[in-house]
Design a protein that fits this description.
mainly alpha; two-stranded antiparallel sheet; globular; Site-2 protease family protein; transmembrane helix
Length: about 375
């Protein structure tokens, strides 16, 4: 078996496995049950539900594939050696997942110019974004009657279509997951869908095209964050150049971390009369400070500078939480903050060719950053 055939089999095999795992995951979201019983007597899913799961996996993987091949073909056009996409399957048999950790391509050449970084970086998210719009349009324009939710939750029938007022009270943490809002999602719900058919935010996970489109917007917004070696980082680096990017990127990263942790710890949390409870809270707080220090560690080689940045963020969060306790960030972003700070990097590889972009590319670059704003949700996933 030659090397080329082995490569095709590897990439094709990963794609097929990811198609299976995302189909399994999609069916579990659609029906609110699992394929494997985790407790005795639990009602599980079967082949019929698995086949219906393709309503999620096909549009979701189509968007992901268009995104990755946008990078691939643009790299080829710029004579940059690049691999086919590697798909990463991940299905949690005992809990719900989306069936994948995404996909990536390996760039095998040194990229020496801002223009090449720009072309390769922007092609993926813009291509995937266009298909995501199509999927969302179809999902919201073909919503089933509102009574459809009773086929998933027959227990809601006792409340009728007012189930949202009662069903989510006294649920355990994680007992329901809702889709947050962003500007595009709000537009589709308001101007494309029949308002009478739009489901409750905590029940949108059962609508496969809506869920696939929303997740596509979510991952597009993460990719377009203009920091480091994310697609948005490539775009902004190409737009403003090396010198400005070295100031803008860490400032954006610190702001992102500030928002993510806002409200996680507040002055009121330490107004505890019980000494043991106070010490426990203090311990969690010190772990948080250490977490931020590690996340910021690659901003500067000077550890004093990193410590000052960390303490400034924490103090700023405390002050703002004291002044406006109703302003709360989204702690779910902290995982991505850590991955970005420790592994993906805040800065961008420097390029010897610093030629400015032409006007057409500059317009496309600012359009891509506008797409980031349209797709970004301050609180992408909700819990009751």
């Amino acid at each position: 078996m030659n090397k080329r055939l082995k490569t095709y089999l590897l990439h094709g095999g990963l794609f097929i496995i990811t198609l299976i795992t995302t189909t399994l995951a999609g069916a579990e979201w659609m029906y609110g049950r699992l394929f494997i019983p985790v407790v005795e007597g639990m009602k599980t899913l079967g082949w019929t539900e698995f086949l219906n799961g393709f309503q999620f996996s096909i549009p979701f993987l189509a968007i992901l594939t268009v995104h990755e091949f946008g990078h691939y073909f643009t790299a080829k056009a710029n004579r940059v050696r690049v691999s086919l996409p590697y798909y990463i399957p991940l299905w949690l048999a005992i809990g719900q997942s989306i069936g994948t950790l995404g996909a990536f391509i390996r760039i095998r050449d040194y990229i020496d110019s801002r223009r090449k970084y720009f072309d390769i970086g922007i092609a993926g998210p813009l291509a995937g974004f266009v298909l995501a719009l199509v999927v969302l349009w179809y999902g919201f324009s073909h919503l089933p009657p509102p009574e459809f939710i009773f086929t998933i939750h027959p227990e809601y029938q006792k409340w009728g279509l007012d189930y949202g007022k009662y069903a989510f009270q006294n649920l355990p943490e994680g007992g329901a997951v809702g889709l947050g809002d962003n500007l595009l999602f709000t537009f589709f719900k308001t101007y494309v869908a029949d308002p009478a058919r739009v489901p409750h935010p905590y029940e949108m996970i059962h609508y496969p095209y809506v869920l696939a489109g929303y997740l596509a917007l979510f991952f597009t917004s993460l990719n377009l964050i203009p920091i480091g070696q994310l697609d948005g980082g490539h775009i902004l680096y190409a737009l403003i150049g090396r010198r400005r990017f070295r100031w803008v990127a860490p400032a954006l990263f610190i702001g992102f971390a500030f928002y993510a942790g806002l409200g996680l710890f507040t002055p009121a949390d330490f107004a505890i009369p019980n000494n043991d409870a106070f010490l426990d809270q203090l311990g969690y707080f010190l772990l948080y400070v250490g977490f931020l220090f590690l996340a910021f560690a690659r901003i500067s080689e000077n550890r004093i500078t990193v410590l000052l940045i960390t303490l400034s963020v924490v103090v700023g969060q405390f002050i703002l939480s004291w002044l406006r306790p109703d302003w709360v960030g989204y702690s779910g972003f902290l995982v991505f903050v850590f991955v970005l700070g420790r592994f993906l990097g805040v800065y961008h590889p420097e390029t010897p060719l610093e030629e400015p972009l032409d006007f057409k590319r500059q317009v496309l670059g600012w359009i891509a950053l506008l797409v980031f704003i349209l797709c970004f949700s301050p609180k992408p996933f909700l819990v009751p």
